[in-house]
Amino acid sequence: AVAVPIAIGAFILATPLTLSFYGTEFLPSAKAxxxxxxxxxxxxxxxxxxxxxxxxQTKSATKVTGFTLLFNLVFNLIFLPKYGFxxxxxxTVCSELIQLFCYTYIVKTKVLQFKxxxxxxxxxxxxxxxxxxxxxxxxxxxxxxxxxGGAIYTAALLLMKFxxxxxxxxx
Length: 171
Description:
By secondary structure, the chain is an all-alpha fold. The protein has seven helices and no strands. It has helices at 3-22, 30-56, 58-83, 85-111, 121-136, 142-159, 165-169.
């Protein structure tokens, strides 16, 4: 649930964040910032299946990781010289998506059957709501926008009763 608002927020706020920290000189890096945050968000999403595949299907995990490494290396060698660091960020997102789909498939077919997608419906809806509101909001201070986005996302999850009693017991 944490990956969704981070990815959507980074998409919307990458330019103001870049300007806030580094000024106009680094503005071209805003696209790469969003893409790399998206890659990390994808990693957050598949971390449960990552743990399962590493513990239960080590050989398969090694093959997928090796393929992903080769994919990343080859495509970076091809596209990085011509298209620069943004291409490298796109390739990183693609690499994480390969890991997500391959790991999920292997776990579902060789370890255990589970309904992975159903846990993303409410966070996706809350993230879309947060994104629409942030997108249509007038440009405030970037930190105020981050706080407002976080409040909207949290409130939407609470209203949709995303959290179970066992979640609250962790606190």
